[in-house]
Amino acid sequence: MAYTIALAGKGGVGKTTIAGMLIKYMIKNGKSPILAVDADSNYNLNEVLGLEVTDTLGNAREDMKKGAVPGGMTKDIFISMRLEEAVIETGDYDLIVMGQPEGTGCYCAANTLLINCLERLSDNYPFIVLDNEAGMEHISRLTTRNVDALIIVADASRRGLQAAFRIDKLAAELHIGVVKSYLILNQVKNFVPDKIMKMIAENGLEFAGIVPEDDVVYDYDSNGKPTIELPEDNNALQAAFKIFDNIIN
After folding, report:
1. Domain of residue 137, CATH code
2. pTM of the shown model
3. Domain that holds residue 99
4. Cβ contacts of residue 147 below 8 Å, gap of 6+?
5. Cα separation of 249 and 241, whole Å?
């Protein structure tokens, strides 16, 4: 069974950037091959990793709906073939993207396909990094399940913390198999106010550490440069690596 790390958090807190740092850390420390999963319909983990997405699970689902299964091929064989086609392969990790189904409506079908995909592929990888969509919907739809470490990313604001605490609470209430949850404060300017640290202490969600706001990370994001290529002496990356030392090791 693969060791699975999932990332969650409200929009705008830098969750996907942290996911890229985590993948970089794992590769550096020999924890590969990794299956990186972008479970967000509005995907961008590929940009952090410097990869081009040409196919998604959403596309595979649309092919099924349109009856694109070739004659003489079962639906199960067809979907297995399409899953393989959707995987973007690299040397140390592979990436699969959920993507957005065509038209409006519920993402439940694509989400179910993602769950089935993880079940099919998990035996092929010792490590899985799952970058979830922003908010709590992925928790309620059980995308995140059987997770060894749930990393909840927040900013150092009251609303950011409240969102993080709600995610942690919902994961516990749904009994989805999260072994341990951690809180990372990201994009922190200068210091964390005492009242914020008090909120964390009173809640009980394990505080893993702080990743500071960083101009180099901002420049990479602004210019479309993959943050997985950040130099290892970067302050934000070094802070993240120290956090991952404690979470993974």
Report:
1. 3.40.50.300
2. 0.90
3. 3-248
4. 4, 5, 6, 130, 176, 177, 178, 179
5. 11
